[in-house]
Design brief:
Blueprint (H helix, E strand, L loop, with lengths): L15 H4 L34 H6 L33 E3 L20 H12 L1 E5 L7 E3 L10 E7 L8 E6 L4 E6 L17 E7 L1 H8 L3 H22 L3 E5 L2 H7 L10 E9 L12 H7 L16 H11 L8 E6 L8 E6 L2 E7 L3 H7 L1 E2 L2 E2 L8 E8 H8 L3 H22 L3 E4 L5 H7 L7 E10 L8 E3 L3
Antiparallel strand pairs: 1-6, 2-3, 2-18, 4-5, 4-7, 5-6, 7-9, 8-9, 10-11, 10-15, 11-12, 13-14, 15-17, 16-17
Helix pairs in contact: 3-5, 4-5, 5-11, 7-11, 8-11, 9-12, 10-11
The structure holds flavin mononucleotide.
The site of flavin mononucleotide has 16 residues, from helix 5.
């Protein structure tokens, strides 16, 4: 398992994961280069969809949210914005195997994603369609990862580098049909089967179609898209680990641009993240038990988050500590305001290195209600939750080092952890609600982060589902 906090490394050869010590987490060489993907080194930075003023417009304030959001009307289109929301590729389609009921280390781990059942499980449990909500007027389709108003701007691709310097085959996941669709073949006119070929390592690549979210959220969309991309990266990493695969995560922008070179829908789709997945036989004892069941049950609660005031078990917090200690990126802090957790006094805690430390005991509601506000109103019923989490990241240092790209990178770091938290909550019958109705500056002040250069990127409330969480049926492929 590979984790890192800095520059990513991409393997020298397509099967490099097999050959290296998979527990080696960091690479300091800063080398970039993707086998089978030409034009790699020195990819120019290019324009970023995350200008520096997004921090002030979409994190420290919500000024970029258009007034039309309240009425559910479409926001006026951004000048020069791409309106395409992404029609499925017209190329050949490859139905995936039915996803297994349980997620467990693959019987033939050396085949990696060349095993059709592993391929199907990885896509389905990372980003597949999980539940159909029959509530009238609700959002009917729910996937393995949360998405603001179920708009799902992310796309998930399989990039299979060819031998030598051949370009890569690229397939896109179609969750609605549980299929992969060919986007680009290494050899023109070929019809590469995504699970054919040797058990070498492949890349899972995440992109984002901002237009899907911008139709409601206007200029606020890049923030939501970056959050979701991070959550999806956490999802792929978790499911790959449950399948016993070896993974290597990275944040490096040049590598990402190289992996997406030549096949992205220009102007419409932004490259966000990648994860190298290789064959192997690893036992990840940190992966929660019955992960498939938890992912099928995962949900964000009712439209207004107003759970039953029921205590969460202490085991949920222990498990959260273990899982977050194996998150793809370590450079974040998890602050917890505990209201009702069996055996633990109410108070503010810090979860770091797998250990929970009490910072201040006492009623947390007044502080959380000051942080968790949307235009002066309390965003959720924090009086009934089990706990509320705030994820902070070292913003000043990242901006100093990476400039505008710090926005993408830090949202990947925090988003991956946010998804892990939602899965652990689901394992214990709780909902986890990501909610952007919070004051980032107030959060920093009350969490004691002022002057530290850290910024809070996620607020997540955890509680029972409550009586109004809708009527959802499982989706079966
Ligand atoms: C990045 C992100 C931001 C969100 N922001 C809000 C929010 O500000 N307010 C809110 O009520 N729900 C918010 N949500 C919750 C989504 O609306 C919810 O995840 C979606 O309805 C999907 O439901 P499910 O997770 O149960 O499948 C957010 C979710 C995500 C992923």
């Amino acid at each position: 398992m590979t984790r890192e906090t800095g520059t990513a490394r991409v393997a020298d050869a397509t099967d490099a994961i097999d050959a290296t010590d998979a527990t080696d987490t960091t690479d300091t060489t800063g080398r970039t280069g993707v086998p089978g993907v030409p034009g790699v080194p020195g990819v120019p930075g290019g324009g970023t969809p995350f200008p520096l003023d997004l921090w002030s417009e979409a994190v420290y304030s919500r000024r970029s949210i258009p007034a039309t959001l309240a009425t559910g009307d479409y926001a006026p289109e951004e000048p020069g914005a791409h309106s395409g929301s992404g029609t499925p590729p017209a190329g050949p389609r490859f139905p995936l195997d039915p996803p297994p009921l349980r997620l467990e280390p693959a019987a033939h781990a050396s085949r990696g994603l060349a095993d059709p059942s592993v391929l199907a499980a990885l896509f389905h449990y990372s980003f597949g369609l999980m539940q159909h909500d029959l509530t009238p007027g609700g959002w009917p389709l729910h996937r393995a990862v949360a998405s603001a108003r179920c708009l799902y701007p992310s796309e998930l691709y399989l990039v299979s580098p060819g031998a030598d310097n051949q370009r890569a085959d690229v397939h896109r996941f179609d969750p609605l049909r549980h299929q992969l669709a060919l986007v680009r073949a290494a050899v023109d006119g070929c019809r590469p089967d995504p699970s054919a070929g040797p058990g070498t390592s492949r890349f899972l690549v995440i992109t984002s179609r901002h237009a899907r979210t911008a139709r409601l959220y206007g200029g606020y969309a890049p923030r939501l898209c970056a959050q979701e991309a991070g959550m999806l990266l956490g999802a792929v990493h978790l499911v790959a680990a449950a399948l016993g695969l070896r993974t290597r995560t990275g944040l490096d922008r040049a590598t990402l641009l190289a992996l997406t070179d030549g096949w992205l829908e220009s102007g419409a789709e932004h490259p966000m993240a990648y994860l190298e997945v290789g064959p192997g036989a690893e036992h990840h004892d940190w992966v929660p038990a019955d992960l498939a069941g938890a992912l099928r049950a995962r949900q964000s609660g009712a439209a207004l988050f107003d759970p039953q005031p029921v205590a969460a078990p202490r085991a949920m917090l222990d498990e959260l500590g273990t899982v977050l200690a194996h998150a793809p990126f370590a450079d974040l802090s998890c602050h917890l305001y505990l209201s009702r957790v069996t055996g633990l006094p109410a108070g503010r805690y810090l979860l770091a290195g797998g250990r929970l430390r009490l910072v201040r005991a006492g009623d947390v509601v007044p502080e959380v209600e000051r942080i968790g506000q949307t235009e002066g109103r309390v965003s959720m019923n924090f009086r009934a939750v089990s706990f509320t989490a705030y994820l902070s990241v070292p913003r000043d240092a990242a901006v100093a080092e990476h400039g505008a790209d710090a926005f993408r990178r830090l949202h990947l770091v925090a988003g991956a952890a946010a998804h892990l938290l939602s899965v652990v909550a689901a394992r214990h019958g709780h909902s986890a609600r990501v909610h952007n109705g919070y004051e980032a500056a107030t959060a920093e002040r009350l969490l004691g982060l002022t002057g530290s250069g850290e910024t809070v990127l996620f607020q997540i409330a955890v509680g029972t589902s409550g009586p109004d969480a809708g009527f959802r049926l499982p989706v079966v492929f």
